[in-house]
Amino acid sequence: MRRRAAQSAVTVQVFYLERWKQKMIVELGKDGFEEYTKNIFLQGELFHSALESVFLCEEIATKEKSKDGVISGYLSSVEHVLEDISEVKALESGVYHETLQYLGLVDCVAKYRGQLCVIDWKTSEKPKPFLKNTYDNPLQVAAYVGAINHDANYDFQVCCGLIVVAYKNGSPAHPHFMDPDLCLQYWNKWLLRLEEYMDRN
């Protein structure tokens, strides 16, 4: 029953990917967009894999570290943020909000400066020093917070979020902390967005 419901549920990413995709196709053309996304997803995959190794206290494979320097800059970028992260509770973990029928994959749940957060790792070639520069990412984090708090698979509650924007050139990442009030604001926006999506489909 739960599996069938999950298969029919809306994924959080659906809202954001389609809008971004159309914008990029206009800018790069279809072929250019396909090449761009292939490289971006490869970098993102390697970066997330390397972070998972760090949190699991494993040594990052030398091959992975030096592979054309693809992720070395990103890892250098987040070093100062990693110092403030402790007590990892979940990594690359599926979440499902049964009542609202949506699901997603959370990058990380851990404490940031003592506050339990849903942590979303982002890579960027452009500086994103302010939360508003992260577009819909805060909505995504709020959606994950809501899903975790309504998913019986998790025996804890989360009320904060953290979006970490890492840079390819190794410059210090921008961590954007979302306190409970801010998460609640974005949660309410997410509910409106979800309602609009459901009305259209």
Q: How would you portray this structure in words?
A:
The chain has 6 helices and 6 strands, in the order αβαααβββαββα. It is α/β, with parallel strands linked by helices. It has a single domain (2-200), classed as Lambda Exonuclease, Chain A (Alpha-Beta Complex). Strands 1, 2, 3, 4, 5 and 6 form a 6-stranded mixed sheet that branches. It is globular. Residues 1-8 and 58-68 have low confidence and may be disordered. InterPro entries: PDDEXK-like_dom_sf (IPR011604), PDDEXK_AddAB-type (IPR038726). Residues 44-154 form the PD-(D/E)XK endonuclease-like domain. Its EC number is 3.1.-.-.
Question: What's the arrangement of secondary structure elements?
Answer:
Blueprint: H1 2-8, E1 10-11, H2 12-55, H3 62-66, H4 72-82, E2 85-97, E3 102-112, E4 115-124, H5 137-149, E5 160-167, E6 174-178, H6 180-200
Parallel strand pairs: 1-3, 4-5
Antiparallel strand pairs: 2-3, 3-4, 5-6
Helix pairs in contact: 5-6
Pfam family, one: PDDEXK_1
Domain PD-(D/E)XK endonuclease-like: 44-154
Active site: 107, 120, 122
Number of strands: 6
Range of strand content: 15-25%
Q: What letter string, H or E per element, gives the SSE order?
A: HEHHHEEEHEEH
Shape: globular
Mean pLDDT figure: 82
Low-confidence stretches: 1-8, 58-68
Proportion in helices = 40-55%
Query: In the CATH hierarchy, what is the class?
Result: Alpha Beta
User: Would you identify the CATH architecture?
Assistant: Alpha-Beta Complex
Radius of gyration: 17 Å
> What is the CATH fold-level name?
Lambda Exonuclease, Chain A
Protein name: Mitochondrial genome maintenance exonuclease 1
Function: Metal-dependent single-stranded DNA (ssDNA) exonuclease involved in mitochondrial genome maintenance. Has preference for 5'-3' exonuclease activity. Necessary for maintenance of proper 7S DNA levels. Probably involved in mitochondrial DNA (mtDNA) repair.
Family: Belongs to the MGME1 family.
Keywords: Exonuclease, Hydrolase, Mitochondrion, Nuclease
